[in-house]
């Protein structure tokens, strides 16, 4: 049984995950060694060692989630516990969390930090997948099938916005939207949802205007201004984006060479986190960027392919949610680095430094591999069963003819 299940795993997806994680580890070392020495007065391999430790923990979590049947996530008590833990951790962060990057988003554990908002992503994915899988027979009912999950997600996003972390809240909202659109709603229900959203915006807009100064601080407005014209305030709000442009432009087609970045020498703040793609572009050029995008694209497309093949609504929605998360986060990160959208501080999946992100992605990839395995195993079992039936009938017919 175990041997058959192991044969059913999608090893091409696993190979892509290992390859992009290993590449990310190399780039974290290359992009962070100068920052580690100059800014943090630590060893050049400080962030490399931490990222390696995160990846080892992530590998254990990936193996665990890949072997344990994903159907166990349907347990209602488990979902309630996860939702309550999410709410309590976000409340704790709001009142006593560690501040970094102008947001109170972290819980400190000695030298390490945990970002609860990262793990809310998978909690929302599991919750929505379970809710919409169970409500298929009354999914178009506004009060029973539509409103409760939207209210729950809105509450969680509200706590994250209070930190404030608009980037993560936006990602969770977009993941929820992708799952809602794929959950089986009729066009009529989607039109009602759009009307409901418009009504909510009409109610919320006066409050946004009233608390405009608190919501849109000078720092956040600076991000919008730098997005429109970074050279207008090159020494302050536009500094990061301008140096990102320099890194991308100087890399050209072939790059300056691994480890040869100039922008990581204090010009580009935090080059190993949300702006790591700029360093990749500078050091490895077009080929480095293409390599990363090809691997990320493969993982996303593979995830949607698994969702399409899976006959179980819960498994299919889980795969859609995980794939959407990676795709949305990648687009937001690349948009910020290239100046297509305002900078949000969102990391690049599998590549950027960050323990919370790596552990979350590892767990998600294990779940995706598990869904793929069960789908492939069922398909093979069906084929084997359909082949064996005719042979049994043929043997029975032969015996009759012999008589």
Automatic annotation (TrEMBL):
Record key words, sorted: Cell cycle, Cell division, Cell membrane, Cell shape, Cell wall biogenesis/degradation, Glycosyltransferase, Membrane, Peptidoglycan synthesis, Transferase, Transmembrane, Transmembrane helix
The keyword Metal-binding is assigned to this record: no
Cellular compartment(s): Cell membrane
Domain of life according to the entry: Bacteria
A cellular-component GO term for this protein: cell division site
UniProt pathway annotation: Cell wall biogenesis; peptidoglycan biosynthesis
E.C. code: 2.4.99.28
MF-aspect GO terms: lipid-linked peptidoglycan transporter activity; peptidoglycan glycosyltransferase activity
UniProt membrane topology term: Multi-pass membrane protein
Transmembrane feature ranges: 12-32, 52-73, 80-100, 112-133, 145-162, 168-186, 193-212, 284-305, 317-341, 353-375
GO BP: cell division; cell wall organization; peptidoglycan biosynthetic process; regulation of cell shape
Reaction catalysed by this enzyme: [GlcNAc-(1->4)-Mur2Ac(oyl-L-Ala-gamma-D-Glu-L-Lys-D-Ala-D-Ala)](n)-di-trans,octa-cis-undecaprenyl diphosphate + beta-D-GlcNAc-(1->4)-Mur2Ac(oyl-L-Ala-gamma-D-Glu-L-Lys-D-Ala-D-Ala)-di-trans,octa-cis-undecaprenyl diphosphate = [GlcNAc-(1->4)-Mur2Ac(oyl-L-Ala-gamma-D-Glu-L-Lys-D-Ala-D-Ala)](n+1)-di-trans,octa-cis-undecaprenyl diphosphate + di-trans,octa-cis-undecaprenyl diphosphate + H(+)
InterPro entries: Cell_cycle_FtsW-rel_CS (IPR018365), FtsW (IPR013437), FtsW/RodA (IPR001182)
Job description of the protein: Peptidoglycan polymerase that is essential for cell division.
Family: Belongs to the SEDS family. FtsW subfamily.
Protein's recorded name: Probable peptidoglycan glycosyltransferase FtsW
Organism: Bacillus altitudinis
Lineage, broadest ranks: Bacteria, Bacillati, Bacillota, Bacilli, Bacillales
């Amino acid at each position: 049984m175990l041997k058959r299940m192991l044969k059913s795993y999608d090893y091409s997806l696993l190979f892509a995950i290992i390859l992009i994680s290993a590449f990310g580890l190399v780039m974290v070392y290359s992009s962070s060694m100068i920052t580690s020495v100059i800014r943090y007065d630590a060893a050049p391999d400080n962030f490399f060692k931490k990222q390696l430790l995160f990846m080892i923990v992530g590998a254990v979590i990936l193996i665990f989630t890949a072997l344990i049947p994903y159907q166990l996530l349907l347990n209602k008590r488990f979902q309630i516990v996860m939702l309550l833990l999410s709410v309590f951790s976000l409340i704790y962060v709001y009142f006593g969390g560690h501040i970094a990057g102008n947001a109170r988003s972290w819980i400190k554990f000695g030298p390490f930090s945990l970002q609860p908002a990262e793990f809310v992503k998978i909690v929302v994915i599991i919750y929505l997948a379970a809710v919409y899988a169970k409500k298929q027979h009354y999914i178009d009912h506004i009060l029973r099938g539509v409103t409760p999950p939207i209210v729950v997600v809105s509450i969680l996003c509200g706590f994250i916005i209070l930190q404030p972390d608009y980037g993560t809240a936006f990602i969770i909202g977009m993941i929820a939207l992708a799952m809602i659109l794929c959950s089986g709603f009729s066009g009529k229900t989607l039109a009602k949802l759009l009307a409901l959203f418009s009504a909510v915006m009409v109610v919320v807009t006066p409050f946004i205007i009233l608390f405009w100064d608190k919501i849109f601080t000078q720092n956040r407005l600076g991000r919008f201004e730098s997005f429109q014209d970074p050279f207008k305030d090159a020494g302050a709000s536009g500094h990061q984006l301008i140096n990102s442009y320099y890194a991308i432009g100087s890399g050209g087609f072939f790059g300056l060479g691994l480890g040869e970045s100039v922008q990581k020498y204090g010009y580009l703040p935090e080059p190993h986190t949300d702006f790591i793609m700029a360093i990749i572009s500078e050091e490895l050029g077009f080929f480095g960027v293409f390599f990363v995008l090809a691997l990320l694209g493969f993982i996303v497309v593979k995830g949607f392919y698994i969702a399409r093949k899976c006959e179980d609504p819960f498994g299919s929605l889980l795969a859609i949610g995980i794939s959407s998360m990676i795709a949305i986060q990648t687009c937001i990160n690349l948009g910020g680095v290239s100046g297509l959208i305002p900078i949000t501080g969102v990391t690049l999946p599998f590549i950027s430094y960050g323990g919370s992100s790596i552990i979350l992605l590892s767990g998600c990839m294990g779940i995706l591999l598990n869904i793929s395995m069960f789908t492939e195993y069922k398909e093979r079992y069906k084929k084997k069963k359909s082949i064996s039936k005719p042979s049994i009938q043929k043997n029975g017919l032969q015996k009759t003819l012999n008589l």
